Amino acid sequence: MxxxxxxxxxxxxxxxxxxxxxxxxxxxGRMLGRYMLEWARSxxxxxxxxxxxxxxxxxxxxxxxSLGFQxxxxxxxxxxxxxxxxxxxxxxxxxxxxI
Length: 99
Description:
With 99 residues, the chain is an alpha+beta fold.
């Protein structure tokens, strides 16, 4: 978890997570996501952006959407998936409301 970029874009947070597939459906990803959103708010960020969510990772896409993220774009064929070949990477974004 960190700033997405320095300078004029430093008000947007970024994070990257990987959850072991063997722990799937036990809530680890949701717990990490909620923690990250709380951290970003407490650090004063106004939004969070994921720069690379693999479009075929439907569980991750569904999770981030359930936590309020929107897909704002997809970079075509930017990820060489071991089973699906070249697939897109979603850029996902969520504003953080002021509390």
